[in-house]
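Fold this sequence, please.
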Amino acid sequence: MAAPDPAPQLGTLTWLPAHEHRHLLGDPVAAAVAGLSGPAWVAEIDDTAADTAAFTETYEVPLTASANCVVVAARRGGETTLAACLVLATTRADVNGLVRRHLGARKASFAPQDVAVAESGMAYGGITPVGLPASWPVLVDAAVAASELLVVGSGTRGSKLAVPGSVLAALPGAEVLEGLGQPLD
């Protein structure tokens, strides 16, 4: 049996193996964590510090070590497709350009909060690509896929996951796209 992967040293948090601490995860994430292609760790946080800016300041995790997952509603005709976009926290998702074209939509925008929460089964501010519905495309920026380790949501505002970029790129429904993340204005 292989030795477990050592916990990362990332910020001031104590990282624990996610598969052993599913109680810290949102239900869909807890169900999906065992099927990941590699390691994942979870750290409990103050739920008031879940948003990226507050999180990086409170827990001294570099912004460059965080990724944001946004839920997009792509419309064509009378149909709406929900998709997740995963980009580095130092960038924004190119929703109206690359995402819209890639999904073959006439219009793409951020999904309304209530829709994102209801359809993902996760808390707003904690939505993560791990455990999303199988029908959702998961668009992953190439810079995310190439990252050694990134902090993402855990399905709840009370914790965060640390996952290698290669594991995120291997999620069901994941497609790696060059240029998905655009520089912040």
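Residues 52-59 form the longest helix (8 residues). The chain has a mean pLDDT of 94.
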